[in-house]
Structure to design on (387 residues):
Protein backbone atom coordinates (compact mmCIF):
# COMPACT_ATOMS: atom_id res chain seq x y z
CA UNK A 1 0.00 0.00 0.00
CA UNK A 2 1.32 3.45 -0.89
CA UNK A 3 2.59 5.76 1.86
CA UNK A 4 1.92 9.49 1.75
CA UNK A 5 4.03 12.26 3.30
CA UNK A 6 3.65 16.00 3.81
CA UNK A 7 5.46 18.74 1.91
CA UNK A 8 8.05 19.46 4.62
CA UNK A 9 9.06 15.80 4.83
CA UNK A 10 9.30 15.56 1.01
CA UNK A 11 11.51 18.66 0.92
CA UNK A 12 13.75 17.27 3.68
CA UNK A 13 14.24 13.90 1.96
CA UNK A 14 14.93 15.49 -1.43
CA UNK A 15 16.94 18.44 -0.14
CA UNK A 16 14.91 20.89 -2.24
CA UNK A 17 12.50 23.80 -1.86
CA UNK A 18 8.70 23.45 -2.28
CA UNK A 19 8.92 24.98 -5.77
CA UNK A 20 11.03 22.02 -6.91
CA UNK A 21 8.50 19.58 -5.47
CA UNK A 22 5.75 21.34 -7.45
CA UNK A 23 7.92 21.00 -10.57
CA UNK A 24 8.33 17.26 -9.97
CA UNK A 25 4.53 16.95 -9.71
CA UNK A 26 3.89 18.92 -12.92
CA UNK A 27 6.38 16.72 -14.80
CA UNK A 28 4.66 13.55 -13.62
CA UNK A 29 7.57 12.40 -11.43
CA UNK A 30 5.74 12.73 -8.14
CA UNK A 31 2.17 11.64 -7.38
CA UNK A 32 0.08 13.90 -5.18
CA UNK A 33 -3.25 13.62 -3.39
CA UNK A 34 -5.36 15.84 -1.14
CA UNK A 35 -4.85 15.26 2.59
CA UNK A 36 -8.09 13.59 3.79
CA UNK A 37 -7.64 15.25 7.20
CA UNK A 38 -7.13 18.74 5.78
CA UNK A 39 -8.25 19.49 2.21
CA UNK A 40 -6.07 22.62 2.17
CA UNK A 41 -2.92 20.47 2.22
CA UNK A 42 -1.42 17.98 -0.21
CA UNK A 43 0.34 14.70 0.44
CA UNK A 44 3.05 13.20 -1.74
CA UNK A 45 3.63 9.54 -2.55
CA UNK A 46 6.50 8.37 -0.34
CA UNK A 47 7.71 5.78 -2.83
CA UNK A 48 8.07 8.45 -5.53
CA UNK A 49 10.01 10.71 -3.17
CA UNK A 50 12.31 7.83 -2.20
CA UNK A 51 12.97 6.97 -5.86
CA UNK A 52 13.79 10.59 -6.68
CA UNK A 53 16.09 10.86 -3.67
CA UNK A 54 17.91 7.67 -4.68
CA UNK A 55 18.33 8.98 -8.22
CA UNK A 56 19.80 12.25 -6.91
CA UNK A 57 22.26 10.33 -4.73
CA UNK A 58 23.33 8.15 -7.63
CA UNK A 59 24.65 11.22 -9.42
CA UNK A 60 25.11 11.55 -13.13
CA UNK A 61 27.84 9.01 -13.78
CA UNK A 62 27.74 7.39 -17.22
CA UNK A 63 26.84 3.95 -15.89
CA UNK A 64 23.99 5.36 -13.79
CA UNK A 65 22.57 7.14 -16.81
CA UNK A 66 22.90 4.02 -18.96
CA UNK A 67 21.11 1.95 -16.33
CA UNK A 68 18.22 4.24 -15.54
CA UNK A 69 17.50 6.14 -18.73
CA UNK A 70 17.22 5.84 -22.47
CA UNK A 71 18.31 9.27 -23.64
CA UNK A 72 19.93 11.82 -21.35
CA UNK A 73 18.32 12.75 -18.06
CA UNK A 74 15.05 10.93 -18.80
CA UNK A 75 13.40 9.18 -21.77
CA UNK A 76 12.83 12.16 -24.03
CA UNK A 77 11.99 12.58 -27.71
CA UNK A 78 11.34 16.02 -29.25
CA UNK A 79 7.72 16.34 -30.33
CA UNK A 80 5.44 19.15 -31.45
CA UNK A 81 2.27 17.07 -31.15
CA UNK A 82 1.00 17.39 -27.60
CA UNK A 83 2.10 18.65 -24.21
CA UNK A 84 0.93 19.05 -20.60
CA UNK A 85 0.88 22.60 -19.25
CA UNK A 86 -0.44 23.41 -15.77
CA UNK A 87 -2.54 20.27 -15.62
CA UNK A 88 -4.04 20.69 -19.09
CA UNK A 89 -3.49 18.72 -22.31
CA UNK A 90 -2.70 20.60 -25.53
CA UNK A 91 -2.63 19.40 -29.15
CA UNK A 92 -0.13 21.53 -31.08
CA UNK A 93 -0.79 24.38 -28.65
CA UNK A 94 -4.58 24.00 -28.65
CA UNK A 95 -6.40 23.07 -25.46
CA UNK A 96 -7.68 19.50 -25.98
CA UNK A 97 -10.80 19.98 -23.84
CA UNK A 98 -11.80 23.15 -25.66
CA UNK A 99 -11.15 21.49 -29.01
CA UNK A 100 -13.34 18.55 -27.97
CA UNK A 101 -16.19 20.98 -27.32
CA UNK A 102 -16.93 21.24 -31.04
CA UNK A 103 -14.31 19.54 -33.23
CA UNK A 104 -14.73 16.18 -34.92
CA UNK A 105 -12.08 13.48 -34.82
CA UNK A 106 -11.31 14.36 -38.43
CA UNK A 107 -10.65 17.98 -37.48
CA UNK A 108 -8.48 16.92 -34.54
CA UNK A 109 -6.51 14.68 -36.91
CA UNK A 110 -5.95 17.59 -39.29
CA UNK A 111 -4.46 19.52 -36.36
CA UNK A 112 -2.20 16.70 -35.20
CA UNK A 113 -1.08 15.68 -38.68
CA UNK A 114 -0.64 19.31 -39.76
CA UNK A 115 -2.53 18.23 -42.87
CA UNK A 116 -3.12 20.81 -45.57
CA UNK A 117 -6.38 19.18 -46.71
CA UNK A 118 -9.42 18.12 -44.61
CA UNK A 119 -9.07 14.60 -43.22
CA UNK A 120 -11.58 11.97 -44.37
CA UNK A 121 -11.98 8.70 -42.46
CA UNK A 122 -14.81 7.34 -44.60
CA UNK A 123 -14.65 3.65 -45.39
CA UNK A 124 -16.46 1.27 -47.76
CA UNK A 125 -18.31 -1.72 -46.41
CA UNK A 126 -15.64 -4.17 -45.21
CA UNK A 127 -15.50 -7.72 -46.48
CA UNK A 128 -15.04 -9.32 -43.09
CA UNK A 129 -15.73 -12.79 -41.79
CA UNK A 130 -15.12 -11.96 -38.12
CA UNK A 131 -17.48 -10.34 -35.63
CA UNK A 132 -16.69 -6.63 -35.15
CA UNK A 133 -14.34 -6.08 -32.24
CA UNK A 134 -10.76 -6.42 -31.14
CA UNK A 135 -10.00 -9.70 -32.91
CA UNK A 136 -11.38 -8.36 -36.19
CA UNK A 137 -9.43 -5.10 -35.87
CA UNK A 138 -6.08 -6.65 -35.02
CA UNK A 139 -6.46 -9.39 -37.63
CA UNK A 140 -7.20 -6.87 -40.38
CA UNK A 141 -4.35 -4.60 -39.31
CA UNK A 142 -1.88 -7.51 -39.13
CA UNK A 143 -2.74 -8.46 -42.72
CA UNK A 144 -2.14 -4.90 -43.88
CA UNK A 145 1.14 -4.72 -41.95
CA UNK A 146 2.40 -7.95 -43.54
CA UNK A 147 2.13 -6.50 -47.03
CA UNK A 148 2.64 -2.80 -46.33
CA UNK A 149 5.17 -0.54 -48.04
CA UNK A 150 7.97 1.19 -46.17
CA UNK A 151 7.35 4.80 -45.18
CA UNK A 152 10.74 5.86 -46.53
CA UNK A 153 10.91 7.79 -49.80
CA UNK A 154 7.19 8.58 -49.90
CA UNK A 155 5.54 12.01 -49.88
CA UNK A 156 3.72 13.18 -46.77
CA UNK A 157 0.41 13.65 -48.61
CA UNK A 158 0.59 10.02 -49.78
CA UNK A 159 1.21 8.83 -46.22
CA UNK A 160 -1.68 10.99 -45.01
CA UNK A 161 -4.00 9.30 -47.50
CA UNK A 162 -2.85 5.87 -46.34
CA UNK A 163 -3.29 6.89 -42.70
CA UNK A 164 -6.84 8.06 -43.39
CA UNK A 165 -7.71 4.70 -44.91
CA UNK A 166 -6.16 2.85 -41.95
CA UNK A 167 -8.20 4.76 -39.36
CA UNK A 168 -11.37 4.32 -41.39
CA UNK A 169 -10.82 0.57 -41.74
CA UNK A 170 -9.98 0.25 -38.05
CA UNK A 171 -13.24 1.97 -37.09
CA UNK A 172 -15.21 -0.40 -39.32
CA UNK A 173 -13.49 -3.39 -37.73
CA UNK A 174 -14.57 -2.15 -34.29
CA UNK A 175 -18.19 -1.86 -35.37
CA UNK A 176 -18.61 1.56 -37.01
CA UNK A 177 -21.00 1.57 -39.95
CA UNK A 178 -19.41 1.96 -43.36
CA UNK A 179 -19.96 5.24 -45.15
CA UNK A 180 -18.70 8.77 -45.69
CA UNK A 181 -19.95 10.32 -42.47
CA UNK A 182 -17.77 11.47 -39.58
CA UNK A 183 -16.35 8.74 -37.36
CA UNK A 184 -18.56 9.49 -34.36
CA UNK A 185 -21.69 9.26 -36.51
CA UNK A 186 -20.52 5.99 -38.05
CA UNK A 187 -19.99 4.49 -34.58
CA UNK A 188 -23.38 5.75 -33.39
CA UNK A 189 -25.08 4.14 -36.39
CA UNK A 190 -23.15 0.91 -35.96
CA UNK A 191 -24.26 0.71 -32.32
CA UNK A 192 -27.82 2.01 -32.95
CA UNK A 193 -27.40 5.12 -30.81
CA UNK A 194 -29.45 8.32 -31.07
CA UNK A 195 -27.91 11.49 -32.51
CA UNK A 196 -27.36 13.07 -29.08
CA UNK A 197 -25.31 10.07 -27.96
CA UNK A 198 -23.10 10.45 -31.01
CA UNK A 199 -21.98 13.81 -29.61
CA UNK A 200 -20.65 12.02 -26.52
CA UNK A 201 -18.68 9.66 -28.75
CA UNK A 202 -17.27 12.65 -30.66
CA UNK A 203 -16.17 14.40 -27.48
CA UNK A 204 -14.63 11.26 -25.99
CA UNK A 205 -12.67 10.43 -29.13
CA UNK A 206 -11.25 13.93 -29.56
CA UNK A 207 -10.11 13.85 -25.92
CA UNK A 208 -8.33 10.55 -26.60
CA UNK A 209 -6.50 11.18 -29.88
CA UNK A 210 -3.11 11.77 -28.22
CA UNK A 211 -1.42 11.99 -24.82
CA UNK A 212 2.19 12.96 -25.49
CA UNK A 213 4.88 10.23 -25.43
CA UNK A 214 2.98 7.25 -24.05
CA UNK A 215 4.39 3.73 -24.22
CA UNK A 216 2.25 3.02 -27.30
CA UNK A 217 3.44 6.21 -29.02
CA UNK A 218 7.03 5.21 -28.23
CA UNK A 219 6.44 1.74 -29.70
CA UNK A 220 5.00 3.27 -32.88
CA UNK A 221 7.97 5.62 -33.12
CA UNK A 222 10.44 2.76 -32.76
CA UNK A 223 8.73 0.95 -35.65
CA UNK A 224 8.69 4.15 -37.72
CA UNK A 225 12.40 4.73 -37.09
CA UNK A 226 13.15 1.42 -38.83
CA UNK A 227 11.23 2.42 -41.95
CA UNK A 228 8.37 0.03 -41.23
CA UNK A 229 5.08 0.51 -43.06
CA UNK A 230 2.34 2.70 -41.59
CA UNK A 231 0.10 -0.29 -40.75
CA UNK A 232 3.09 -1.92 -39.04
CA UNK A 233 3.74 1.24 -37.02
CA UNK A 234 0.08 1.42 -36.07
CA UNK A 235 0.00 -2.27 -35.13
CA UNK A 236 3.09 -1.83 -32.92
CA UNK A 237 1.39 1.05 -31.15
CA UNK A 238 -2.02 -0.59 -30.77
CA UNK A 239 -0.68 -3.87 -29.41
CA UNK A 240 1.10 -1.83 -26.75
CA UNK A 241 -2.06 0.20 -26.15
CA UNK A 242 -4.04 -3.01 -25.54
CA UNK A 243 -2.38 -3.63 -22.16
CA UNK A 244 -4.60 -3.24 -19.06
CA UNK A 245 -2.16 -0.70 -17.62
CA UNK A 246 -2.54 1.50 -20.70
CA UNK A 247 -5.35 1.80 -23.25
CA UNK A 248 -7.42 -1.09 -21.92
CA UNK A 249 -7.50 0.34 -18.39
CA UNK A 250 -11.19 1.15 -18.93
CA UNK A 251 -11.77 -2.62 -19.01
CA UNK A 252 -10.57 -2.82 -15.40
CA UNK A 253 -12.94 0.02 -14.52
CA UNK A 254 -15.81 -1.77 -16.26
CA UNK A 255 -15.10 -4.84 -14.12
CA UNK A 256 -15.16 -2.58 -11.05
CA UNK A 257 -18.49 -1.07 -12.12
CA UNK A 258 -19.91 -4.56 -12.65
CA UNK A 259 -19.05 -5.29 -9.00
CA UNK A 260 -20.74 -2.05 -7.96
CA UNK A 261 -23.92 -2.93 -9.86
CA UNK A 262 -23.93 -6.44 -8.41
CA UNK A 263 -22.87 -5.83 -4.79
CA UNK A 264 -23.55 -2.15 -4.19
CA UNK A 265 -21.13 0.75 -3.98
CA UNK A 266 -20.63 0.58 -0.19
CA UNK A 267 -19.58 -3.07 -0.11
CA UNK A 268 -17.19 -2.67 -3.04
CA UNK A 269 -15.62 0.49 -1.68
CA UNK A 270 -15.22 -1.02 1.80
CA UNK A 271 -13.47 -4.03 0.30
CA UNK A 272 -10.99 -1.94 -1.66
CA UNK A 273 -10.23 0.49 1.15
CA UNK A 274 -9.92 -2.18 3.85
CA UNK A 275 -7.52 -4.28 1.80
CA UNK A 276 -5.43 -1.41 0.47
CA UNK A 277 -6.21 -2.27 -3.16
CA UNK A 278 -5.84 0.56 -5.65
CA UNK A 279 -9.09 1.65 -7.26
CA UNK A 280 -8.64 1.46 -11.04
CA UNK A 281 -9.50 4.66 -12.88
CA UNK A 282 -9.03 7.11 -10.00
CA UNK A 283 -6.12 9.52 -9.84
CA UNK A 284 -3.57 10.29 -12.54
CA UNK A 285 0.05 11.25 -11.93
CA UNK A 286 -0.01 13.81 -14.74
CA UNK A 287 -3.15 15.50 -13.36
CA UNK A 288 -2.74 16.00 -9.59
CA UNK A 289 -5.82 18.24 -9.50
CA UNK A 290 -7.93 15.84 -11.57
CA UNK A 291 -8.05 14.70 -15.19
CA UNK A 292 -9.70 17.54 -17.15
CA UNK A 293 -10.64 15.11 -19.92
CA UNK A 294 -12.72 13.04 -17.50
CA UNK A 295 -14.35 16.12 -15.98
CA UNK A 296 -15.31 17.42 -19.42
CA UNK A 297 -16.84 14.12 -20.54
CA UNK A 298 -18.65 13.30 -17.28
CA UNK A 299 -20.24 16.76 -17.30
CA UNK A 300 -22.13 15.83 -20.49
CA UNK A 301 -24.14 12.84 -19.26
CA UNK A 302 -25.46 11.18 -16.11
CA UNK A 303 -24.01 7.72 -15.41
CA UNK A 304 -26.23 5.03 -13.82
CA UNK A 305 -27.11 5.99 -10.24
CA UNK A 306 -25.02 3.31 -8.55
CA UNK A 307 -21.95 4.35 -10.54
CA UNK A 308 -22.56 8.05 -9.84
CA UNK A 309 -22.83 7.38 -6.11
CA UNK A 310 -19.69 5.24 -6.22
CA UNK A 311 -17.68 7.97 -7.96
CA UNK A 312 -18.78 10.55 -5.40
CA UNK A 313 -17.96 8.29 -2.45
CA UNK A 314 -14.50 7.54 -3.84
CA UNK A 315 -13.90 11.28 -4.19
CA UNK A 316 -15.04 11.91 -0.60
CA UNK A 317 -13.11 9.05 1.02
CA UNK A 318 -9.86 9.14 -0.95
CA UNK A 319 -9.62 12.62 -2.44
CA UNK A 320 -8.87 10.98 -5.81
CA UNK A 321 -10.61 12.24 -8.93
CA UNK A 322 -11.87 9.97 -11.74
CA UNK A 323 -9.67 9.84 -14.82
CA UNK A 324 -10.64 9.34 -18.47
CA UNK A 325 -10.89 5.55 -18.01
CA UNK A 326 -13.72 6.03 -15.49
CA UNK A 327 -15.50 8.47 -17.81
CA UNK A 328 -15.19 6.06 -20.74
CA UNK A 329 -16.45 3.08 -18.72
CA UNK A 330 -19.33 5.17 -17.38
CA UNK A 331 -20.26 6.15 -20.94
CA UNK A 332 -20.36 2.49 -21.95
CA UNK A 333 -22.57 1.64 -18.95
CA UNK A 334 -24.86 4.61 -19.47
CA UNK A 335 -25.67 3.75 -23.11
CA UNK A 336 -25.23 -0.03 -22.83
CA UNK A 337 -22.59 -0.13 -25.53
CA UNK A 338 -20.93 -3.39 -26.63
CA UNK A 339 -18.55 -4.92 -24.08
CA UNK A 340 -15.43 -3.91 -26.02
CA UNK A 341 -16.73 -0.50 -27.09
CA UNK A 342 -14.53 1.47 -24.69
CA UNK A 343 -11.36 -0.04 -26.12
CA UNK A 344 -12.71 0.28 -29.66
CA UNK A 345 -13.31 4.01 -29.21
CA UNK A 346 -9.95 4.48 -27.49
CA UNK A 347 -7.99 2.48 -30.06
CA UNK A 348 -9.64 4.16 -33.03
CA UNK A 349 -9.16 7.65 -31.62
CA UNK A 350 -5.59 7.01 -30.48
CA UNK A 351 -4.69 5.57 -33.88
CA UNK A 352 -4.78 9.20 -35.03
CA UNK A 353 -2.10 10.10 -32.51
CA UNK A 354 -0.04 6.96 -33.12
CA UNK A 355 0.08 7.77 -36.82
CA UNK A 356 1.00 11.37 -36.00
CA UNK A 357 3.93 10.14 -33.90
CA UNK A 358 4.97 7.75 -36.65
CA UNK A 359 4.90 10.52 -39.26
CA UNK A 360 6.79 12.92 -37.00
CA UNK A 361 9.48 10.30 -36.36
CA UNK A 362 10.18 10.06 -40.10
CA UNK A 363 11.96 13.39 -39.90
CA UNK A 364 14.71 11.63 -37.94
CA UNK A 365 17.18 9.43 -39.83
CA UNK A 366 18.52 7.43 -36.88
CA UNK A 367 16.96 4.15 -35.75
CA UNK A 368 15.84 4.22 -32.11
CA UNK A 369 18.12 1.64 -30.53
CA UNK A 370 18.81 1.93 -26.76
CA UNK A 371 21.58 -0.24 -25.35
CA UNK A 372 21.19 -2.98 -22.79
CA UNK A 373 23.51 -3.31 -19.77
CA UNK A 374 24.27 -6.98 -19.23
CA UNK A 375 23.71 -8.11 -15.62
CA UNK A 376 23.54 -11.89 -16.15
CA UNK A 377 26.02 -14.67 -15.50
CA UNK A 378 29.58 -13.76 -16.36
CA UNK A 379 30.51 -15.13 -19.80
CA UNK A 380 32.98 -18.03 -19.74
CA UNK A 381 35.51 -16.53 -22.14
CA UNK A 382 38.36 -18.91 -23.02
CA UNK A 383 41.80 -17.42 -22.59
CA UNK A 384 44.82 -17.85 -24.86
CA UNK A 385 42.96 -18.50 -28.11
CA UNK A 386 45.00 -17.81 -31.24
CA UNK A 387 44.33 -14.49 -32.91
Amino acid sequence: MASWIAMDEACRLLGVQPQTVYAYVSRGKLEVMTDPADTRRSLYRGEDVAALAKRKQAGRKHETLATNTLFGAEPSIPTALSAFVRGRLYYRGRDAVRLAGSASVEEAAQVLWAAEQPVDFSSPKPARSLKPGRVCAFTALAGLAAGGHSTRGRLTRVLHAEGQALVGQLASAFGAQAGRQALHLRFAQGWNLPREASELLRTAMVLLVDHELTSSAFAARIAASTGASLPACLLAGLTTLSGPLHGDASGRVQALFDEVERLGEDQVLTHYLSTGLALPGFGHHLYPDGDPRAAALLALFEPPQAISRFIEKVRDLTGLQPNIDVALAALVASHQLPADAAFGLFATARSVGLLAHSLEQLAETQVIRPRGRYVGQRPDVEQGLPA
Observations:
- The beta strands are 4-5, 32-35, 38-45, 82-85, 88-91, 94-95.
